[in-house]
């Protein structure tokens, strides 16, 4: 008998993928991180200009390491920057990429994508600029409603990311969002992608049964 968790993840992933499709996204469910990486690579050509935001899911499935491996010569990698000014410039160049890779802090069951960002470059690039966008998100990020998705982004994803970045905010001491106004806060830009505008190019969403990111 198949694992009940895997069965549930497949059912939920396919249900949400269909709801994303109704909103104009191109969406697919895969069971494993390895499948997620291969699916993402199938959307990318060797000569594409490629960039990404802070997407832990893309790192966890091995996609970023694959892109950095040399087979894709035209990557814009802000982690190679030697100064804050160079990092900002690389982030700006990402708006002209052929492919931009991002994640989701949460996705509602009816197919709306929720993200919270510190500087806004990641969420901006996901909706305007790059020709194609690939979103990788595991099914543990699926929430019942869009309100629940926003709550997950604030109460789960943001405090974990603050721990990862080592910032001095109330959530690093309490483990939950305190609705702070800290200078170190990354909860500055809230984005809900309610529908994919096909005139800009379809956002491709890969839902993954295996846990990735936060």
Q: Could you walk me through the main structural features you see in this protein, from its secondary elements to its overall organization?
A:
It is a single chain. This protein has 214 residues and is α/β, with parallel strands linked by helices. It has one domain: 3-Layer(aba) Sandwich (Rossmann fold), CATH 3.40.50. 38% of the residues lie in helices and 20% in strands. The strands form two sheets. It has a six-stranded parallel beta sheet, with helices on both faces. It is globular.
The gist of it:
This protein is an alpha/beta fold. The protein is 38% helix and 20% strand. The two termini are 29 Å apart.
* H/E element sequence: HEHEHHEHEEEHEEHHEE
CATH superfamily annotation:
NagB/RpiA/CoA transferase-like
Q: Sheet with the most strands?
A: 6 strands, parallel
What is the CA-based Rg, rounded? 17 Å
Which blocks of ≥5 consecutive residues have pLDDT under 50?
none
Strand content: 15-25%
Just give the CATH class. Answer: Alpha Beta
Identify the strand order in the major beta sheet: 1-10-7-4-2-3
Q: Span from first to last CA?
A: 29 Å
Task: Give helix % range.
Answer: 25-40%
Structural class: alpha/beta
Return the CATH topology: Rossmann fold
Mean pLDDT: 95
Number of strands: 10
Overall CATH architecture: 3-Layer(aba) Sandwich
As for the number of domains, it is 1
> What is the molecular shape?
globular
**Annotation field: number of helices:** 8
